[in-house]
From TrEMBL:
Name by which UniProt lists this protein: Putative permease
Pfam families assigned: FtsX, MacB_PCD
Organism whose genome encodes this protein: Mucilaginibacter gracilis
Positions of the MacB-like periplasmic core domain: 21-255
Stretches that traverse the bilayer: 21-43, 302-323, 348-375, 395-414, 448-466, 698-722, 734-762, 782-802
Amino acid sequence: MLKNYIKTAWRSLARHKIFALINISGLAIGISAALVIYLIVYYDFSFDHFEKDNDRIYRVVTNFNMSGVTYHNRGVIAPMAGAVSKEATGVSEVSAFHQYNEVKVNITADNNIRPLMLKKQRNVIFADAAYFKLVTAYQWLAGSPDVALHEPNKVVITSKSAQLYFPGVKYHDVIGKQIIYNDSVRTTVTGVVNELPQHSDFIFQDFISLATIPTSGLKTNFSYDNWTMTNGSSQLYIKLVPGTTVPQVEKQLASLYKKYSPPPRANGSKYSIVHTLQPLSDVHFNADYGAYDEHTAHKPTLYYLLLVAAFLLALACINFINLSTAQASQRAKEIGIRKTMGSSRAQLIVQFLGETLLLTLIAAAASLLLIPVLLKAFSGFIPAGVSFNLLHQPHLVVFLLLLIVSVSLLSGFYPSWILSNYNPALVLKNQAYANTGKTRKTWIRKTLTVFQFLVAQLFIMGTIIVSKQIHYTLNKDMGFKKDAILSVYTQFYSKQPNLRYVLMDKLKTIPEIEMLSLAGSTPATDGTSSGQVNYKDGKKDIQTDVHFKFGDVNYLKLYHIPLLAGSNVHPSDTVKEAIINETYAHILGFKNVNDAVGKTLLWSGTQKLPIVGVMGDFNQQSLHQAIKPLLFSAAASNSYTIHIALKPQNADGTAWKNALSKIQMEFKAVYPETDFEYDFYDESIARFYQSDMHVSSLLQWATGLSVFISCLGLLGLVIYTTNLRTKEIGIRKVLGASVAHIVSILSADFVKLVVVAFIIASPIAWWATSKWLQNFAYHTNINWWIFLMSGMLMVVIALLTLSFQTVKAAIANPVNSLRSE
């Protein structure tokens, strides 16, 4: 019986090659897209599940509320960890660590150990022994967690770091070796641990004992004892005792902050700091606070991906259903004979489902060949850890099998139910549809076709609006100049910090350079530096979280940031005076920005800071974020980046290339052991919107695939329709109908379906894109022409698809179509 089913199924596919090819192509695309999306979603949702009691582990984060606007920081006030450890109840583990990224690592020669110097090593942290009590999945290969990090100048490294620093040395022999970080932090290896076994946001490789910070002169860098500064690198994790609730602990955090922080300012202040608990399961998905490998997944995007996969599979299944039911009359006699010979309806259903399963298996095999292509096409969107290997991914095999079964049932059940329901007596009398009207009841096929083009048009409209927003973000005036500006980074942890001034003097002699500025960060950056600043005028005390920028007197000129009132800052090694932005001036209550000049701010709780000027507003981050209150000051001690404005490019396009070559030569003359690194500022701005560009790329692919699958189904239906109406077409031509008239008759019904889909899709697309644009503080408009253009584009694509068959049928010789009469 099974052999007969397989043979019959194969013969059926062979008899209808074109329809089989259309179905296989659509299903292969849908299945391969679903598999790729499954790999992405599975990867992101698998983070940190291995950790014991992960539902009781939380990261303490900080939220600043200023005038009703909340700002997020994944760090905490550094001394908060000690206070929680000593005074908080309901907490079983408290682990504090500080990130120490882009670190220079030196390994000195020792017996058989070769000297090694590595620049900008990432994933180095200062941690205490509690870290390994909280994250217990590490396997200790050498050393003991009980004593490894108790004393200053000790370090635990992972097996990966051990193999990099001490190649060929056994892990136990690594104990006692010396590692020097940034030429100043000398440590002794006291432990070696294995890599974490699964996907995790705890990506750290070197763990320097936390007690090293107060003994190595780094207390100021990490605001180690400062209850007024929140440092994003200062991390605090806790594990709750079973039965302890999050509100109970958050209440204690508020009490500790109130107890140890400076007294809050009164009289109308709208500024507050709130410490909250972020679940470990949220760390990988919350961009407000971020993860440590700079890859945070976006849950809504993952759900959208699943929706895209479901849509693509649904479109492919609809193709199968439409073509199968459309061909029903061609298999009517076969079904009648089988029923007459004793086949039950159940057996016929199994037979037709078997045909669907065979077709789906072929499509699944083809999809496995497509997956590497799709992974490469989506390489900019897919996380680096996503891979495809059936032999080492049993969960993928299980998913593929479930997918094959599901697609087979979804595609095959309805057609098999319809086909197996024929009355054998009527079929054999060639009256299968007599008195039933089933040949004319095509509303199901029409509904499914409308759904196909509805999905395709939603993707087209979404793609156009997302692309329009990205164009808007890249071209909007952000309040500063961003073209022909590059940043060159000097050594922050240098024993000779004055070398940056030597480099500045050398760069001034390069004729292709228009202006230089020694400063901190560029006007708009991914990260921010902020702190609490007070303003008191005798009547009110306004306490605000303010963003800080530092630079010399050329900074505002170089970036073309206008000075609206007052004067520029004077050169200084430390913060002595301030220029504030227009937003901050309005927050302080000044309608006329000139009135803010001469007023005094309270900096770091005690230092008086006169306002010498007010500058124009500019975006300090991407357009996702609103403009924040900002303070600019000259502080050479915080300025390690050289900002370079180049003169306009010459006619042959070589000026900038020559300038870069000269800048690099001068840089290496001053910093011979440091890598020359630079960024063009307009490219840095573009990187702000990488995730949005990935969404755009995803939509483009989804649009292309959905349109292709929909058009495949449309082509199949029009082939079937023209074949069914061959004699009608011949008669019309004999009676004088033109080719254009016949083409319009054959195309009209299908074009109507596309128009109906457009009418339904437009309001849905408007609502969905409006919701997406709410992620931007500044965004483009949704214009009516976008929807009209999308609809017209879909009509043109449908007409082109229809024309392949309708024109062929219309120009055919009517003698051939009428000869059988």
